[in-house]
Amino acid sequence: MERDAHGLPWDVRIRLASLADIPALNQLIIRSAKELGAREYSPEQIAGALQGVFGVDTQLIHDQTYFVAALEEQLVGCGGWSRRATLFGADAIAGRDPEPLDPRADAARIRAFFVRPGYGRRGIARALLLRCEEEASKAGFRSLELMATLTGVPFYTAHGYASGPELEQPLATGGVMRLVSMRKELV
After folding, report:
1. Is 3 contained in some domain?
2. Above 60 in pLDDT, residue 7?
3. Taking the CA of residue 34 as centre, how many other CA atoms within 13 Å lie in the half-sphere pointing to its CB?
4. Cα–Cα nearest to 142, from 99, 101, 103, 86
5. What DSSP element (H or E) covers 174?
6. Residue 134's domain is classified under what CATH number?
7. Structural domain harbouring 62
8. Tens of pLDDT, residues 127-146
9. The pTM is what?
């Protein structure tokens, strides 16, 4: 199988997400959360997270900082970065802050990464992350922050992100979900 410069199979394409992708993104996120998140989180936690913590943030699409990985017409991954203060969460999460960040003083946000079950370990998330890091760097950011699921911590650690404090995020259905803050300095 031939691969591109980022290690992706030639038939997988990364492109900007559009509003028309939202139904497919919602399905991708639900499947990814339920199947890949099941190692670290209970079904109840995942159901609660799908009501705000996980999901599409349309601000990222409008800002043209959210990408999808597509295999023919099927979405197999998604992820983005943000120049806004909101650190994580879908449109439905409370406490969103659309305030612009200052690239000279603030870290860009890495946001909403999901891979379709069955497509893990094929370089899709890595290629999306590299694209986001490149775009944030071009926008003048010198560091990146994110809030990782326990499932995502090993992936981000392998790509140079350092773990910070944990957060117990309250869920809409009750209970909490443990998340980990992470940071990377761009060189």
Report:
1. no
2. no
3. 9
4. 103
5. none
6. 3.40.630.30
7. 12-144
8. 999 999 999 999 999 999 99
9. 0.93
